[in-house]
Amino acid sequence: MQDMENGSAERIGLTALAALLLAPVVAHGAWRPLGHVSGAAGDAVPVTCAALAVAAITVLSGRLRRDMAWLPPLAGGLTATAATAALSLGAAGLLTLLAVAALSAPLTRLLPPRLPPALDGLAARNKGLTALYLAAALISVVSVARVSTFIGDPSRVDLQAIPGERFTETHSCLTAYLRAADLIGGGVDNLYDDRWWHGSHGLPPRPAGSDDPYRPFDLDNFSYPPTFLLVMPLLAPLHGDFLAQRALWFGIDGLIVALGLWSLARWIDGPRAHRALLLAPLLFGSAPMLLMLQIGNFHPLAVVLSVLAMVAFDRKRTAAGGALLALTILSKISPGVLGIVLLVQRRFRSAAAAAGAGALLLGLSVLNFGLSPLRYFLSYALPRLSSGRAFPFMDTETGINTNTSPFGVPFKLEVIGLDVGEPWQVGAYVARAFTLLLVALAVAGARHRGDRRDQAIRWMSLLVLAAMQMPFSPAYATVGLLWATTLLSVEVRRARHAIALIALWPAILFTPPGLAPAQQAALSIAQTAVTISVSAWLVLRAPRTVSE
Length: 548
What we know:
The protein is globular and about 70 Å long. The longest helix is centred in the N-terminal third of the chain and has 30 residues. It starts with a helix and ends in an 8-residue tail after the last helix. Helix content is about 70%, strand content about 0%. The chain contains 24 helices and no strands. It is mainly α.
């Protein structure tokens, strides 16, 4: 009874892990934006270290005296003040560390009692697995701290998610979002015209002497519907300070992804469901997830928000679910596959809520930006997206080998040495066939309801396949499948099953260095085939019953 009152070691440990993972994200989501207002002081590395110290001391103080609810915020606040003074972090640093304390203190009090009882005593019963988990957790904390520091100081390229990879250290998808927002705010009708995007990959360089507001990052291209730009006012107060905007976007993305992983893991039920909760922090701190957060791509948010929309529908929060699903569909299009699921399952109220929210978002888009951007997206951008012409780098060596889409397979076969004719034309045929397959899978999969975990795995797998339907689909399209592995862990009963599940990650993501172009193309085809096959199997398989 006393152990339950004070919180078991497992509950406190998982709470500490959550606080340590989120502390650098919050810190570097706030530090540069606050410095934009009050003036920057200090360096990114001390800010990261101080944030971790504030989170750790806040959690430990709550462990010492759980009857004193005021102790964690006091300890966090005093640590933040002392660290600011010792490291000369200034007003921005103090407010940043106080924000970390403000997040860590409620976590310390609210999270332990909300964790499942299955965690209690788990470490004592599984000492070997606990040691492995602690090692993985430590790696995750260090990884998040490294990438967060790179967000605070883009000159520290040694701390990025893939050190030594030139593309990822200079790539930021946020450049495209901000550039598009500037264009549409300036009254440009066809913001998808290539002439506005010179300097992005595959297009001519910027004119000599032109201003580059995103330095040291390269401009990315914009391919989203104009409705997506409705979220850009979040960054408007920091206009003209790209590094501050990048930091705030990173912080927002990180917190939403973390909330989504937590919410889904708490929503699923049944025997051994606590495994998904234990693996969620490790997924958050994994290299693929951190890379997506580092480059600021909207895709992981689209996947998380789409799944949360379906969870909201299940919880009878129809309006919230409709708003989230409409936002993701009108931003990324591919989450529309979940609309097929709703219709097949005759959940017409949920589908109508999404349609109504979509109509409202379209109306707001037209009201804010006018009708021309939407018209040009439908008549100009969408055909180019479907044909692949919106991705001028698709037939380059890098574009071919990083494309997981079936559309890219003919290009890879050509690299291998096989004559497939005109790869652009063949790729378009392959994409049409894959679209038909996707619809058929969505219809068939929707007929298998299963428990909550089964449904979530099916949604994630469909989102992966839908993202791969685009002519160019980078490796981040697989994030739904990576997330699904944390739910599949519930079914693991043998060591070989765990090994197979872990091996799926490198099987679809890892490319050994030094491969010849033909070998790399062949491996990429194999990875695309594995991703499609596993995702399709997860959509079609019968619901699984997990026993105690």
